[in-house]
Specification:
InterPro entries: DNA-bd_HTH_TetR-type_CS, Homeodomain-like_sf, HTH-type_TetR-like_transc_reg, HTH_TetR, Repressor_TetR_C, Tet_transcr_reg_TetR, Tet_transcr_reg_TetR-rel_C_sf
Protein name: TetR/AcrR family transcriptional regulator C-terminal domain-containing protein
Radius of gyration: 19 Å
Distance between the termini: 65 Å
CATH superfamily of the largest domain: Tetracycline Repressor, domain 2
Structural class: mainly alpha
GO molecular function, one term: transcription cis-regulatory region binding
Shape: globular
Oligomer: single chain
Strand content: under 5%
Pfam family, one: TetR_C_1
Order of helices and strands: HHHHHHHHH
CATH topology of the largest domain: Tetracycline Repressor, domain 2
Largest sheet: none
Keywords: DNA-binding, Repressor, Transcription, Transcription regulation
Amino acid sequence: MQLRRADVLAGAIAILDEYGLADLTMRRLATSLGVQPGALYWHFPNKQSLLGAVADEILRPMDAPVDAADWADRFRTLSTRMRDALLSHRDGAELVAAAYASRLTTSGAREALARAGTDAGLAGAEADLAADTILYYILGHSMDEQSRIQMDSHGALTDDASPLFESPDAASRFEFGLGLFIAGVSATLREHQHR
């Protein structure tokens, strides 16, 4: 049976989910797929390109249409959708952050956030900066959340430091920060109207 690109991606995501990013190696992936490591390079020239493709796969839910009443709802929907996608895979936020930092992801997630800024009325450069700002917020919040969940699962947190006992919960903290971001965009738009 011929190894397909989709098989390699599915195998990489399975290893990511079970063992984490540190254990996602080309050798482990080849072994799990029952092939020699060289067979993987037919589809991905190096590990970095594989990680970029995995990031794209993690972010695939961002490609779905957004049914939003207004620009604020669009930002909220896209941001929540991205957080959910990152948290749905072990070390998902860390992997996607690394893919963005190294410019390896081809996902349109950032562009979708920039379009939401343009829809709000931000000029092109401002919409791009707003997209970067919310993207970094989502990645940072999700990385912290995933790290704390993993530390808690290994017993590394005391009960009073456990995410299970934090108040408010992680989703509420995320929503609060997202509300601050949207309020900031609204304030920027009001400033533009008074110029």
